Amino acid sequence: MSDKIGKSEAVEKIGHFRWSIVALLFFATTINYIDRQVLGILAPVLQKEIGWNEIDYGYIVTAFQAAYAIGLVVVGGLIDKFGTKIGYSLAIFGWSIASMFHAAATSVIGFATARFALGLSEAGNFPAAIKTVAEWFPKKERAFATGIFNSGSNIGAIAAPLVVPWITITYGWQEAFIATGALGFIWLILWWVLYEKPEHHKRLKKPELDYILSDPAETSVKIPWLQLIKYKQTWAFAIAKFLTDPIWWFYLYWIPKFLFKNYGITLDQIGPPLIIIYVMADVGSIGGGWLSSFFIKRGFTVNKGRKAAMLIMALCVVPIVFASQASEMWIAVMLLSIATAAHQGWSANLFTTVSDLFPKKAVASVVGFGGMAGAIGGMMIATFAGFILQLTGSYVWLFIISGSVYLIAFFIFNLLAPHLEPIKETI
Q: Is the pTM above the cut of 0.85?
């Protein structure tokens, strides 16, 4: 009993303001995913109204992915250079405007242009958020903190099917894009009022600052972005993102269409199945981050703790290969729920490996490079999915791919980064 009281008092003395910063990251990620999810929800409606086919839709999604890849080449380095406060602000301002611009689109080219602008600016979210976690948390808490803010992607995916159909049915699809895009401006106000780096934050008490900075000192040498690609660890992260990010993009943009095609789910019925799928994804994001932190606190090395959690998540994705053959919608929803939860648990730990391996000054750049690789993979699957569905009308091969790539990614990651130890080389 006395040990428990002692631990509770220690936590109280340290403080918990750092979790307020995670709340801001969570809010931003939620908005990020609301804005990108609107198109997927409205796709069956817009497909009829605008007149595009599966290949056209694939190209529209590809436009977003291409811009996202280009943006990640640039924004990671810019955030490392100018800092998270300014970099994050510019990113969310840009994607809020781009989201609202969808309301003016009346053709495939118009939507592709709007998606390109959205992808270019939304690329700033994860590099900035991962860098912020690296600045505000010691390593033993980073996966959990990452899992919490990353769960905002699922909350965004849950909120969108609750709000977007109602706005669309009541006011029109243009208003759905305008209303969701405007949310970013609320976040901007909160960010500028509440955020500073830990060393300069007036609300942060010394015990918590000391706890945040309790990891061994890192190299102060700035690592140029282009030189990061010489490290196998950079490629371990990038290849894992290239293989597994496209699966999440596939879920995000094609689940509503899959449920519509296979089970006749319409816009006013899409809410409940999507909410269940993304609530489970939320559980997976937080649970996956918690799992590796649990292992580490129980004596696992960082390497074993992260990889044990990643392997468990990779195995949990495998049953998705049966989703296209599910006889009942709720069986398909169950399989999709397990897969999305496992993906988010995988993602929370994969993101955290960057701050395990690289100094804080390089984190956003490495995340940006890996995110670029993931976006390129997303471009490929978007175009591939469009052609496969237009030619065959079947989701079989898409779900087989979805269930297989995580184990391949885990094997490659472990081969290139067998030990999650901080890079010691100086440049």
A: no
